[in-house]
Amino acid sequence: SDLRQMLATKSVENIQFLPFLTTDVNNLSWLGYGCLKQDWTLIAVNTIGAALQTLYILAYLYYSPAKRPVLLRSLLLLAVLATGYGYFTLLIADAQTRLARLGLFCSVFTISMYLSPLADLAKIVRTKSTRCLSFPLTVTTFLASTSWTLYGLQLRDPYITVPNVPGIVTSVMRFWLFWRYLPGQDKPYRPLHA
Questions:
Q1: 112-183 architecture in CATH?
Q2: What does each C-alpha distance from 182 to 29, 33, 119, 132, 174 come to in angstroms?
Q3: What's the CATH fold of domain 1-91?
């Protein structure tokens, strides 16, 4: 929906850049984990995800009036990825240790991504409005985190299973918020009594 909005308005107004960047890092990290583990499901899904996020970043850069901050953040992302690649490939010789440490990094990063929408929780409760939440994104997050949890359980891979459980929990919390503060209840005016 953000990409559609950028293309329709030819603007990045009201669209945050950080989610594109962090999701790209997440996809690229899991892609590395999939390559180390030789798991073609992880490789295919995260290759597509990383390609899409990179396209979103390029579209954001194209429509952004302030290109310098976007470029600097993207370059910082590349530096972090290069440093991580160097760490995991050059400094850790043992393949099992490398897989475990990369799995732990991916898990921590994924958990932080799933918990980040809860930063708006106080604002939602205070305003009794879910305007800052995306219902389609909540549904997608719920389905994706449930699918990855089940896949991780099937493989008996805690690095895939554990970080996706918070995605399920936070999605259920957001569903409750959508139910509790129904759209339309947050009108900025009071009805007039006749």
A1: Up-down Bundle (1.20)
A2: 37, 40, 20, 13, 12
A3: Monooxygenase (1.20.1280)
